[in-house]
Amino acid sequence: MSSVQLYDTTLRDGAQREGISFSVVDKLHITQKLDELGIHFIEGGWPGSNPKDVEFFDKARNITLTNSVLVAFGSTRRPNAEAEADVNLLALADAGVKVVTIVGKSSSLQVTQVLETTLDENLSMIADSIRYLKTKGLTVFFDAEHFFDGFKANSSYALRVLEVAAKAGASCLVMCDTNGGTLPDEIVNAVEAAKKLATVPLGIHAHNDGELAVADTLAAVNAGASQVQGTINGYGERCGNANLCSIIPALRLKMGIDCVTDEQLAKLTEVSHYISEVANLIPDTFLPYVGSSAFGHKAGLHVSGLAKWAESYQHIDPAQVGNKQRVLISELSGKKNIIYKAKEIGLDLPLRGKEAQKLLEQVKLLESRGFQYDNAEASFELLLRRAKPDYQPLFELVDFMVVVEKRRRLPTRESPEEMLSEAVVKVRVGTEVMHTAAEGNGPVNALDQALRKALLQFYPSLAQVRLVDYKVRILEESIGTSSQVRVLLESSDGVEEWRTVGSSTNIIEASWLALADSLGYCLLRQKAG
Ligand SMILES: [Zn+2]
User: Fold this and answer.
1) Which residues contact 271 (CB under 8 A, 6 or more apart)?
2) Rg value, the chain, Cα
3) Could you tell me the distance, in angstroms and rounded to a whole number, from the CA of residue 322 to the centre of ligand 1?
4) By mean pLDDT, which of 73-77, 275-279, 306-310, 470-474 is the weakest?
5) How far does the centroid of ligand 1 lie from the alpha carbon of residue 180, in Å?
6) What are the angstrom distances between the C-alpha of 356 and each of 284, 296, 368, 379?
7) Whole-model pTM?
8) What's the gap in Å between 9 CA and the centre of ligand 1?
């Protein structure tokens, strides 16, 4: 089996994505996660460009990596200057790493137009910088910036740059599609030309401006590149970098190329989610392989096919990348989805023929009233359980009342008036009826407080539950304030997260339904576990 070395630049190129700002601690955590995934090289940052990266490399000396080698990034020396006196190169030599990557220009136009120096001086800058870093005992990778654009405009110069870098001692020549607009066949042509004269391994670094970064990377590997640079979730400048979360499984599962072990591959989804959490970005549910929709099936026909043959509508087994199959419930669903879903949650429902049909009709009715179960699986599970003839609710809502009041405070206080909400609920638990009242900063909060107050005496574990997210959507917007309102609640007990839905023409009632489902679901899981 041929092999490819994985080079992650999430911490440098990935951090260029709009909205990302990693702290030093974030970067250290991500480094360890990438090590677990089995990434061969982790580019930690550019110590010559900012103090945060200097601090990162300083702290990184104290962490032990099992699979990965940490790499520092920088650029070649400035035109008409000494490599030995170049601040940026000195910072690389001081970063405490064994491998460094330096970027240099390989497009003749970029040299003359942007760098504003001669083609020969650019070659000297590359050679001097690599030689200097070699004298410091470092392994040097060379990033040939704008290589593919340069190859199109002046192929002999682009190739000359690679030759010079190899001769100066670079261990890998990384061809960069810096502007991200190259097509896969153009990548193949250029890599094949480079391969003919290369004396050292070749690498590929692609950007996603033409949405081709993954395709370009795989094409380059087929043409002979053996180092692949990319980022987790494809984070990066503009439209991003080549997404390692798509590249790794493609290499391993489809091209038979060795890069990570089966166990490491099975961590891919976890690593993807972890890094989006640290980046404070909502995980993209539609990402191939690792997104929660990647193996989510909605069409009834597909679900019916999957029940017969797991691979009928999936290109890989989701478990291989640590993901899982999901069956979505919606108005498009057939009876089979419901039977499948019941089985998936281990529910012993006698769902055959008519019963499943009846439940399906109920789902359709609720959906016509604004409930939607695609993203509220906890509410759906409760719906299924309520359909059982021996279903015993853990609590029942008798009624509730909410008062919202605007009160004038004493003028000495900072704020002259405040909004106050108070809720009164009546809940039946077994044979007892609890009557509680609570205040809150809003009506939903007051209801939540009052309901918990009633239930905590019976179920103390509910104290762990907190509401993570609360979304309101107005359906049929043209009707204005009398329109249907859907509330989606996300709750967590610190270990697990679940989503519930409520719908009504009244926002308080919609919230109440979603809230009651959330606490009901939590109790159900605890009872089952
Ligand atoms: Zn880049």
Assistant:
1) 33, 34, 36, 37, 232, 245
2) 29
3) 28
4) 306-310
5) 9
6) 33, 21, 18, 17
7) 0.76
8) 8
